From TrEMBL:
Residues 7-187 form the Metallo-beta-lactamase domain. The keyword Hydrolase applies. This is UPF0173 metal-dependent hydrolase JYK00_00755. Keywords: Hydrolase. It comes from Thermosipho ferrireducens. Gene3D superfamilies: Ribonuclease Z/Hydroxyacylglutathione hydrolase-like. Belongs to the UPF0173 family. GO terms for molecular function: hydrolase activity. Pfam families: Lactamase_B_2.
Length: 223
């Protein structure tokens, strides 16, 4: 099984089933050029902002993939022609053929820009994905005490870019609560407004006894 970073907050888990998280491809300046996606089975969408819902409609249609997101986003995507959705909500857990998925709280917004309108995108979330290894994709979030309830995580994917999400300092506090086996920073340096020092984050993470792996877009780890 591989975990591949595709820039910003987009990750691809490939194994018995192929899962893409927050599929921001079109317009993503950090998406690796010439990268070809495999056939996708599932698309996870943490919230409705364009840099996360991204290409969900197009990819779901191309791959006949199931989109998993909150109830409101699933309804929106159905109206856009997505045939296979699985709606969930915060605290909900479900079993799929890849393992289990639970939605976690995220402190953020979720409005979907649809032409000149902004559509209600429900409550933003993170994901705990258990495929034999337990991944925590925090989504876009600020620091929250709810993270104390997230445990037994093998790999945490945490935003560090600040401005819209946690910065390095707050992400380190999140690490102290979650205590994952490894952390991979995300949602930084895509644009100047979310510029962050990943080397500092790595150094401070490892001072806390938590391995930090910095992935460039297109790079992967085997798990």
């Amino acid at each position: 099984m591989k975990l591949t970073f595709l820039g910003h907050a987009t990750f691809l888990i490939t194994g018995k089933k192929n899962i893409i998280i927050d599929p921001f491809i079109t317009g993503n300046p950090s998406f690796p050029q010439n990268f070809k996606l495999p056939d996708l089975d599932y698309i996870l969408v943490s919230h409705g902002h364009g840099d996360h819902i991204g290409d969900a409609v197009e990819l779901a249609d191309k791959h006949n993939a199931t989109v998993i997101s909150n109830f409101e986003i699933c309804l929106y995507l159905q109206k856009k022609g997505v045939k296979k959705v699985h709606p969930m909500h915060i605290g909900g857990k479900a079993t799929f053929d890849f393992g289990t998925l639970k939605l976690t709280p995220a402190l953020h917004g979720s409005g979907i820009i649809d032409g000149e309108d902004i559509v209600y995108g429900g409550t933003p979330s993170g994901f705990i994905i258990d495929v034999g290894k337990r991944f925590y994709h925090a989504g876009d979030t600020g620091l929250t005490k709810d993270m104390e309830l997230i445990n037994n995580i093998d790999i945490a994917l945490l935003p560090i870019g600040g401005n819209f999400v946690m910065d390095v300092e707050d992400a380190l506090k999140a690490l102290e609560m979650i205590k994952p086996g490894m952390v991979i920073p995300m949602h930084y340096n895509t644009w100047d407004v979310i510029k962050a020092d990943d080397r500092l984050f790595k150094e401070e993470s490892e001072k806390r006894g938590i391995k930090c792996t910095i992935l460039k877009p297109g790079e992967y780890i085997e798990v």
